[in-house]
């Protein structure tokens, strides 16, 4: 075995170019950098909204941390492949000894990838169960059981694929070291199984919440908006389908190393879509808390308004219903307790609200013009008392 020879016999009349083979590394670096940037921004937004603003660490936050940590395994190997052997490089332009390092990168990439996606998808499903499955009625809904079955598939398939990748060759080092004789299974079968499972779960997760969303007690426009947000899972379906297609093409390619580049890039895009879908619901909370829209309007010289309901709490949760935990007294001395703090949308389902319950709110809208007019009137007429008071306990 000549380790300094080409990793694949060149076509007739072609001379291997080991020193400076043609490549498309610039394209690969751009795609990889974009994926890492989007993933990191989404991760930080999620942590900022959930941990810093809401002061909550749910099970899905732990899964997101684990997914982001494992994400740097594929990221490191993907960038390492830029140097050796390069992206969209013909296999006969690479020495056999350099090709062995590529096998190692592919192995590490596959194992870490098989951790990232199950962590992300399980986190999404856990969050969906809390948002869309009413407490006390979860075991009676098809949505909840669908989430549980999909979670089970992700756990079982994830463990099986990771074990298969690590046991594909005996001895283990023969996975990437071509100088060591060993008995190996076809890596293509493992890759096809992984891609098929993830694509199937993506399609299930795309369709699963839609029937629940369209039965919520909301206006048609709001249901449409929520449905659109949950429909962004089509991005994950598209990236998973594209990865499956590139794996099939990689299997039948006459130049396996050249066709490996699309598989790596599509896999990175698929993981990025997972982070984007999981972190997207946090964006409205961040915009609301930071007052980004108001600041933009003020910078553009537009009229700004600030609207805040009575009993508003800075620690309110996100989601479709968020309630404080304090009590208050109305002007007619009737005391009511606010709903216990929750992010669940269970109160939007029929039969969940307490029969005969009355919710009274006060909406106050303050504009720059009305504030100025009020200040001017206050100077002209000094009022010794307020005409209406609200007592807070």
Mean pLDDT: 79
Report the count of strand segments: 6
Low-confidence spans: pLDDT under 50, at least 5 residues? 307-360, 379-393
Residue fraction in strands? 5-15%
Separation, N- and C-terminal Cα atoms: 84 Å
Largest sheet: 2 strands, antiparallel
Instruction: State the secondary-structure class.
Output: mainly alpha
Question: How many individual domains?
Answer: 1
CATH architecture: Up-down Bundle
Describe this structure in words.
With 393 residues, the chain is mainly alpha-helical. It has a single domain (24-300), classed as Rhopdopsin 7-helix transmembrane proteins (Up-down Bundle), CATH 1.20.1070. The protein has helices at 25-53, 59-83, 96-132, 142-166, 187-207, 210-213, 220-230, 233-252, 256-279, 283-290, 292-299, 368-380; strands spanning 169-170, 183-184, 305-309, 327-329, 335-337, 363-367. The protein has a two-stranded antiparallel ribbon. A two-stranded antiparallel ribbon has the order 3-6. A two-stranded antiparallel sheet has the order 4-5. A hairpin with a 5-residue loop joins strand 4 (327-329) and strand 5. Helix 2 (59-83) runs antiparallel to helix 9 (256-279). The model is unreliable at 307-360 and 379-393 (pLDDT under 50). Pfam families: Fung_rhodopsin. It is found in: Membrane. It is a multi-pass membrane protein. Its main location: membrane.
